[in-house]
Amino acid sequence: MNHWDQFLGPYKQAVEELKIKLRGMRSQFDLDSAHSPIEFVTGRVKPIASILDKANQKGIPLDRLETEIQDIAGLRMMCQFVDDIKIVVELLRNRNDFEIVEERDYISHKKVSGYRSYHVVIQYPVQTIHGEKKILAEIQIRTLAMNFWATIEHSLNYKYKGQIPDEIRIRLQRAAEAAFRLDEEMSQIRGEIQDAQVFFTFKKELQQESRKLPRHSG
Ligand code: 0O2
Ligand code: 0O2
């Protein structure tokens, strides 16, 4: 086994375990027939070339990768609505199978690029044949619209090797705002539908109650 296989082994195990655990949270909402704040979950181990690029860009020596690069193990949780993100973060805070070491709110404080997501960095204990090993993992929580924008912006960045022309950069910032307005509009529509449902349920209950009342003849 080479050095990289040995180094990445616990990260691979952590990503596989966390995918199952976080997807399990979604299935539990399905069982309760409740609206799931989690739409879907993905995960990956950062490719070696990307680890080396990041270490190089940030001046991180190879013997400090474990502590200085927080997203070698990366998970993403996609939500339908912005409000669902808060629920998911709260669910993560209440778990006792890992410890949250940092939270970064790029929703209230978007990045200059236009990027929005909520990042939670955790310390996750992996059981290995040599004992327990705690590794860092980054969970990115975002809406479907934020994910749509980030996926395309990420591939353009890759295509332009990080040197996106100014004009495209500005259009991407505008597109990020459009995605955010879409999120807001969808939340409003959901709110109005929920209000209407509460109103109709109340009206139906009132009708049923009034049918039970004795009728006065003449
Ligand atoms: P790319 O280059 O984006 O296409 P499964 O069989 O469903 O259990 P699978 O197929 O191994 O799992 O992977 P899954 O869960 O569908 O997710 C892998 C995807 O994670 C990647 O696909 C990316 O879309 C996404 N991803 C990429 N970067 C990150 C990151 O930094 N953090 C997180 N959390 N997720 C990321 P690809 O094909 O590997 O990459
Ligand atoms: P990949 O290919 O997704 O793994 P830094 O890399 O210095 O900006 P830091 O301090 O490690 O960041 O953490 P940060 O910014 O909280 O999280 C970095 C990850 O967030 C990135 O990983 C992306 O997955 C995502 N991200 C941050 N900013 C942007 C952005 O402007 N556009 C997009 N599309 N994604 C972003 P990597 O390592 O860059 O890439």
UniProtKB/TrEMBL annotation:
Superkingdom: Bacteria
Record has ATP-binding as a keyword: yes
GO molecular function, one term: ATP binding
Pfam families referenced in this protein's UniProt entry, alphabetically: RelA_SpoT
Keyword tags: ATP-binding, GTP-binding, Kinase, Nucleotide-binding, Transferase
CDD domains to which the protein is assigned, alphabetical: NT_Rel-Spo_like (cd05399)
Pathway noted in the entry: Purine metabolism; ppGpp biosynthesis; ppGpp from GTP: step 1/2
Organism for this UniProt entry: Bacillus aquiflavi
Enzyme Commission (EC) number: 2.7.6.5
Residue stretches making up the RelA/SpoT domain: 43-164
Stored Gene3D superfamilies: Beta Polymerase, domain 2, Nucleotidyltransferase
Protein family per UniProt: Belongs to the RelA/SpoT family.
Listed GO biological process terms: guanosine tetraphosphate biosynthetic process
Protein name: GTP diphosphokinase
Quaternary structure and partners: Homotetramer.
Main EC class the enzyme belongs to: transferase
